[in-house]
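Translate sequence into structure tokens.
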Amino acid sequence: MSPSRPPAPSRPAPTRRAAPARPSSPEPAAPARTGGTPSSARPPAHPPAAPPTPPSVPPRSTTSSPRSTSRSLTVTDAPRTSAPGVVSRQSAARFAERARARRNLARRQVVGLAAGAVGVLALGWLLFLSPVLALDSATTTVTGAGTVVAVDEVTQAVAAVDGTPLPRLDTVALRDAVLQVPGVREARVTRAWPHGLSIVLVAREPVAAVPEESGGGYGLLDMEGVQVGRVGKAPKGLPVVDVPVGEARTLTAVLSVLEQLPPELLAEVKAVAAGTQDTVTMTLRDGDRIEWGSAQETPLKVAVLLALRESEQAGDAKVYDVSAPRLPITR
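Result follows.
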């Protein structure tokens, strides 16, 4: 036999970690040639290739028998991922919690709406139906009645709506009823919480007494010519007006003059007569007569008349003609 070849040198392993290299087995000897001397070993045509790097194998368990060929693998717990379409327990708990929160919110909203409706109904009953804010006519105050308005007639109009809750009280209708009382020129009705009313009147104060056609008394007229009362004899504090019957324009001129007189001069007027609206004549309580003329320029005529009566040049004059205030005449 030919001598065996020496084992081929092993190639260094790559830089990565590899399993221990196995010893290379000797190549079989070349067959001897017949009839010849043994030939020397022929070198290989190519260098032997490095043995393949075996896959990394986990270390064997120390408890296994060295003769055992089975390998034990170490199993680690990897995080489990949910399969598609499967909800985890935590997600289901969150969904359930959100659903409970939505149900609780809806329940609170329903309860709030119900409580609000009950509160509105209770407030409506308290304001419009209950006797808590009912009108008590005994607590009504009336001011501005003057000398001709009967206060008891005003309170009778208020008594007709006694017991009505103040929020439901029709103050406009009540004001119209008060205006029907004789002598009331204007009225203002306001609520005085919780049970009363405040009524402020503007009375029609009489400024003149007009003899009646029948001759049985005098009618009391205000500045607008509205009769606010009747008396049997001429009152001391009011002038008596003598105008033709049915002459509304003449009566209006006389009342306009009286309205513009100052209080101290009006108190001295005893009677006023006028055939037309341009021939107004006044008689004072001391006997003096004033030729006034029309109702125009009344303020200027008042100033001229007061100056003439205080002037020493007037002397014992009993007639003052101020119908032309810029050319007054006394006699």
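Note: The domain at 208-330 is CATH 3.40.50.11690 (Rossmann fold).
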